[in-house]
Amino acid sequence: MDKLVTLPWICLTIMGTFILNLFLAATFTSAGLQAAAGTQSMLNIGLASMRYLQAGFIILGILATCSEYTGGQIRTTLTTIPWRGFQLSMKYLALAVITLPAAFIIAASGILYTFIMMRDTAVGFEIDTIIEALVGATGYLTLTTLLSAAMGALFRRTTPALVVLLGYYFVVSPLTIDFLPKFRSYFPDTAGSYMYIPPSADEINVLTPIQATGVLMLWTLIFITAAIVFYRRRDA
Predict the structure, then answer these.
(1) Under a CB-based contact definition with an 8 Å cutoff, are residues 191 and 144 in contact?
(2) I want to staple 73 with a disulfide (CB 3.0 to 4.6 A). Which of 8, 68, 92, 155 is the partner?
(3) Any residues with CB less than 8 A from the CB of 96 and at least 6 apart, and which?
(4) CA 20 to chain centre
(5) Residues of the chain under the 70 pLDDT cut
């Protein structure tokens, strides 16, 4: 944890993601205020930035894993802790401990900003609904970070891992809307979105938040398991 906290790029990524989220929240809120009064969902607008916000946590997970391969730092780590499976598992645990509060604060800031700006015009939500959505958003961002960290361990290089994951989340996955409508709900990003998007009268969520959490956790565990297996068998 000390290594992650003191790594400059980790702090810069979290701070940059926080600032980006506030900017996106202001943008979506401004657009909501210009729409018809009384028809806007404060929660949906507050979480509208999640689609772009996840990029910061993808980068966070990859940097946390790949940074040790720069300059051969991984050799020093394995000399100190030769139990590779244990070492990588503890790295993911430390990353989760850091990501959870960061994800909660960043996701909550968007909802809070939207609430402050639209409290007189937006359609209200019960506090329980807001808490459930916020917990779901925090869980989604944390699991996405861990999945990205596992991908970083598989690639061991920052650029290829970023290209693959950002390409999937922002290019490949949106293109599958028309081609794989039945299976797309079980993809990591789509299933994860059901963790925090409240059901609406116009569209019924395919998965419940609990089911969506289970699907995304399964994807994350698969990639983490693969990362640990390859990590133990490959040279540093």
Answers:
(1) no
(2) 68
(3) 142, 145, 146
(4) 14
(5) 35-40, 120-126, 181, 199-205, 235-236
Q: What does DSSP assign to residue 236?
A: -
Beta pairing partners, 123: 41
Contact 88, 4 (CB under 8 A): no
d(CA 204, CA 198): 9
Report d(CA 140, CA 232) in Å as an integer: 28
Contact 169, 55 (CB under 8 A): yes
Stated pTM of the model = 0.90
Angle at 94 between CA 91 and CA 96, to 5 degrees: 110
Q: Which residue reads 């019960």 in tokens?
A: 126
